[in-house]
């Protein structure tokens, strides 16, 4: 597991454990992209991270997905 993935998971877990909204369970899904592997321009990186985010959400949510793993 890369250092970036460890940080992303730590952030996700902190959001889940610290954020409260009455009786609603709060979860966090993240889409991650890597420069330059997933794109060299900002719009390419954002698009890759967006695809990874939607993949995380469609895979039951509350997880992080890397664009490179799709």
Q: What kind of sheet is the major sheet? A: 2 strands, parallel
**Helix content range:** 40-55%
Mean pLDDT: 91
Order of helices and strands: HEHE
Tell me, what's the shape?
Answer: elongated
Structural class assignment = mainly alpha
Low-confidence regions: none
Strand percentage lies at 5-15%
N-to-C span? 16 Å
The strand order across the widest sheet is 1-2
Count every beta strand, where a strand is a DSSP E run of 2 or more residues. 2
Overall radius of gyration: 13 Å
Number of DSSP helical runs: 2
Oligomer: single chain
Main features:
70 residues, mainly alpha, two-stranded parallel sheet, 2 helices, 2 strands, elongated
What does this structure look like?
- This protein has 70 residues and is mostly helical.
- It contains two helices and two strands, in the order αβαβ.
- It has a two-stranded parallel sheet.
- The radius of gyration is 13 Å and the shape is elongated.
- The mean pLDDT is 91.
Condensed summary:
This protein is mainly alpha-helical and 70 residues long.
Topology:
Elements: H1 3-18, E1 30-32, H2 42-58, E2 64-66
Parallel strand pairs: 1-2
